[in-house]
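Action item from last meeting closed. Structure (202 res):
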């Protein structure tokens, strides 16, 4: 359980009905910590889950989650409103965890240089194969994937983010995101077929 250093007790029940963006705006206007605490309550478990998924270490994920919310608190004035608050939060979480992984020199994919050859249709390659895999096997394959590949597949298929939202989250161009998704799907299927050769899906 994450220890809430910011004391996220909401005393006014009506606060819970306001949108993320309105809560953020009111916090910046009034500096009333209850507005930030509302956002903390809404997203603390999601941020922690993302950290666990990427870092594969619960204690490290707890520490990362706390640091991420401190970083967010200190950076709220920089939120431009061009994307949803949840997308901005996801971006900070993703990049924070990737930075930690890089510092640990742990399982990072080499960046791809040639994104110009990706067509719009490429984003849909192998989707049917991925969706046909049973949940248990899917989880087993994801465990063996590197953090960046796993994260981008979860963004697309679990979190149902659009290509545009993924671009905002990881600060990459649309072509770069499509290439990353394509390569991640290819590696996913390669791992799957190596593990379950007798029942390979293609």
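Sequence:
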């Amino acid at each position: 359980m994450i220890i809430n250093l910011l004391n996220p007790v909401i005393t006014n029940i009506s606060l819970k009905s306001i949108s993320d963006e309105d809560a953020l705006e009111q916090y910046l206007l009034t500096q009333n910590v209850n507005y930030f605490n509302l956002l903390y309550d809404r997203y603390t478990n999601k941020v922690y889950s993302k950290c666990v998924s990427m870092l594969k270490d619960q204690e490290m994920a707890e520490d990362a989650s706390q640091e991420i919310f401190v970083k967010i608190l200190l950076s709220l004035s920089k939120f431009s409103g061009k994307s949803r608050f949840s997308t901005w939060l996801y971006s900070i979480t993703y990049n924070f965890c990737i930075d930690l992984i890089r510092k640990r020199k742990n399982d990072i994919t080499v960046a791809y240089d040639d994104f110009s050859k990706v067509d719009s249709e490429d984003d849909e390659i192998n989707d049917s194969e991925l969706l046909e895999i049973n949940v248990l096997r899917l989880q087993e394959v994801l465990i063996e994937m590197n953090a960046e590949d796993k994260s981008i597949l979860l963004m697309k298929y679990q979190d149902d983010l659009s290509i545009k939202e993924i671009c905002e989250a990881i600060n990459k161009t649309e072509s770069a995101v499509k290439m990353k998704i394509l390569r991640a799907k290819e590696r996913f299927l390669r791992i799957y077929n190596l593990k379950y050769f007798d029942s390979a899906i293609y």
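Note appended to the action item: The chain has a mean pLDDT of 75.
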